[in-house]
Amino acid sequence: MFGIVDFRLLKGLCSLSEANSLYIKHVNIYLENEVIKNGHVLIENGLIKAIYQDDEQPKRFPSQFKIIEGGHRNLIPGFIDGHIHGAAGADVMDATEEALDTMASVLPKEGTTSFLATTITQSPENIEKALKNVANYKDKMGQAEVLGVHLEGPFIEKSKKGAQPGQYIMEPDVDVFNRWQALSGNNIKTVTMAPEHDVDGTFIKTLSQSGVNVSAGHTDIDFEGLKKAVSHGVRQLTHLCNAMNGIHHREIGAVGGAFEIDELRAELIADGIHVVPEMLQLIHRNMGSERLILITDAMRAKCLTPGDYELGGQPVKVTEDRAELENGSLAGSILKLVDGAKQMLQLNNVTINDVVEMASVNPAKQLNVFDRKGSIAHGKDADLLLVDDQLNIQYTICRGKIAYEEENK
User: Fold this and answer.
1) Active-site residue flag, 54
2) Is 398 in a helix, a strand, or coil?
3) How far is 102 from 324, CA to CA, in rounded Å?
4) pLDDT number for residue 63
5) Which of 166, 322, 383, 392 would bridge with 113, disulfide CB 3.0–4.6 Å?
6) How far apart are CA 353 and CA 332, in angstroms?
7) Domain 3-77+381-405 adopts which CATH fold?
8) Is 128 exposed, middle or buried (0-12, 13-18, 19+ CB in 10 A)?
9) Among residues 220, 271, 297, 381, which one is catalytic?
10) Which residues 6+ apart lie within 8 Å of 363 measured at CB?
11) pTM for the predicted model, two decimal places
12) For residue 8, what pLDDT band results from cuts at 50, 70 and 90?
């Protein structure tokens, strides 16, 4: 029977709230280079302590722990959402602890165990409030972890602004960025910008050399320009196909550049709306799982009912499946990351291993946190999902604590 099973030790029966450790039994463990059938994982102090197979078991159990009987389901790494603005009525630009708490508490239900708090093009004052809020935020146990900030804008191209407020767009400025990075507590991990506005590459080079992930997005750049930007340090494309030039038979644009330039990884909103399923298939066939990063780009209406909301101070109409500005432009998404993963799993030649690569491994590598996130390995954070073959989530574990448990298992 699948579920949490009490385990009686000398110290007696421990409740879930008392348990400092977990022992997950009888699962298919998706490791970095193999899948262990009938495996078991011991978690202590929020970390993966040991991995066992078949009849192996720990010689020593912790003094208090709980057993999760996995029922031969799949244990995979937790998802990392590198581009999310909000959820459940909260938005990063609210610049409050409560907003980040709300996001961090609801995201485990969709398999997200860590994320980048993503800003939007806004006034410098509002951006700075959001950055200071992240700098001061303290992660809570049993919730998704805030890995830092994705600064989306304001260094973008007006003609490709999408749902970004145009009046606050500005030219790339190293001094401005450095001030913002300091205010964030050095937590800006990704910057979306239009590379064509950094003619000599100074801005891109400065950020790249400091370890920031520079992503081309909301950009009118062509293929030759993109190749030049990559030589300066651009290593990612923001929400591939959206707010950039598509493929034309005389100019393959940024989308064609994603196919052709191996140094680039690309974010992908796999909701079937921002990118239709046929294009998702074409993208995966050309780029493979090793260069794609699943994101949501979700706004505050995610997890709520259809109605009237806002994004970056702009009114947004939310229906059952999408969020739009008054002019019909898509305004982020209401996508749950696990649903994007399921959409990809329906494509030809996509397996659970591929989903793990796109939703866990690649974002961890892109954000330079693969030493502790993104895969199941000894010593890494115990950010884990217990799922069936269709990626339905039974448990989400964030740094060793159960953050979500499916009802009516």
Assistant:
1) no
2) strand
3) 23
4) 74
5) 383
6) 27
7) Urease, subunit C; domain 1 (2.30.40)
8) middle
9) 297
10) 80, 81, 82, 293, 294, 374
11) 0.94
12) very low
